Amino acid sequence: MGASKTTAFTQADVTVAKYAKALAHPARIAIFRLLLERRSCICGDIVEELPLSQSTVSQHLKELKAAGLIKGDIEGKKVCYCIDAQEWKQAQQALAVLFAGDEPCHTSCC
Amino acid sequence: MGASKTTAFTQADVTVAKYAKALAHPARIAIFRLLLERRSCICGDIVEELPLSQSTVSQHLKELKAAGLIKGDIEGKKVCYCIDAQEWKQAQQALAVLFAGDEPCHTSCC
DNA sequence: TAATTACATCGTAATAATGCGATGAATAAT
DNA sequence: ATTATTCATCGCATTATTACGATGTAATTA
Asked: Which residues of B touch A107 (CB under 8 A)?
């Protein structure tokens, strides 16, 4: 196969997995960090920060945009990317389920 | 290609991406949630909770184990899985970088 | 010992992801 | 108008992921 059985899972699990998948690549993490650090939006300067070709970076940006995590506004001939604050808050809340209990395992086995 | 250029990225970014990748599937999210809820370890009861075959679940467990997020201890003929508390704390810290600034974008473009 | 149970692994098939060069579209500069 | 810049998209090759049945392994049970 190769396609995940998204039908049979919880909507919440699918959502969390979607966000995790969007961040499941070093390049996309780097892009996201850039957009977090320089709170202001950046454009294709991202390409120069990454060891990837322009087309590859564009593709990673597309995936982040598909997940809803970032937005891209056209500014003349440049494009300005920034984090979608609302969606990112939703993502944080969805991911927060995994950060709940911080206590170790109490059973005998481990 | 198909292989990510892990060489040219920050070690931190590679690490975060590794954890995100491990959680980038609804089945693995479901497994992880199960291990969080029932704080005690579970074994192949996981298979009955998921709409996947035993071999597929075993593969997902393998990936979570490869990322270091869970451990599996053999108990007779059953195997007991649980979250690796130490590694999970490291993962939380690594992922926390993305949860830093919660202020919206201040520039003109968005 | 033989049969059963609980998992892991192998083999296979289908799909997705990664990366890049080439091309295209739109705006800015000359 | 022509050229250059910025970015997106297409096409291709390569590798990774997902899924499952079949098989193997180790421990338990009959």
From this structure: 39-41, 80, 82
Contacts across the A-B interface (CB distance below 8 Å)? 152
Q: Which residue in A4, A41, A43 sits closest to A21, CA to CA?
A: A4
Domain that holds residue A25: 9-95
Does a structural domain hold residue B5?
no
- Number of domains into which chain B is organized: 1
CA of B108 to C1' of D17 (A): 40
- The mean pLDDT value of chain A amounts to 89
CATH number at residue A22: 1.10.10.10
In a domain, B2, yes or no: no
Residue-wise DSSP of A10-39: -HHHHHHHHHHHHT-SHHHHHHHHHHHHS-
Q: How far is A25 from chain B (nearest CA, A)?
A: 5
Q: What is the pLDDT of residues B54-89, one digit of tens each?
A: 999 999 999 999 999 999 999 999 999 999 999 999
pLDDT of residue B40: 65
Q: Which pLDDT does position B8 carry in this prediction?
A: 79
